[in-house]
Amino acid sequence: MEMLQLPVVDFKSRFSEALEIVARGGTVCVTYKRRRKPVAVLSPPPHKDVKQKLGMLAGKVHFQISSDWEISDQELLES
Known about the structure:
- This protein is of the alpha+beta class.
- It has a domain at 1-45: YefM-like domain (YefM-like fold).
- It contains 3 helices and 3 strands.
- The protein has helices at 8-13, 15-23, 73-78, and strands at 3-7, 27-32, 37-42.
- The chain has a 3-stranded mixed beta sheet with strand order 1-2-3.
- The longest helix has 9 residues, at 15-23.
- The chain starts with a strand and ends with a helix.
C-alpha cells in the first residue's frame, strides 16, 4: 500500500496526484509547518460490502433496528 507524506504547500500543487494515490488504495498524510506535524490523512472510504463482525457472537446473532426507532440524546446519556 502506497503512503505519501506532503507538506500543505506541496499538497495544494499535487492534489491530483494525491487523489490518484488514494484511488489506488494508498494514503496521503498532509503535514504542517517546519516540524511537519501531521494534520490530515486522506484514505479511501471503507468498503460498503464489508460487514462488521460481532466478536464472539459473529454468525450466531442477528439483529435489526427498525427504521422508525428514535432515541433522544438525553435518553441515550441516561441509559
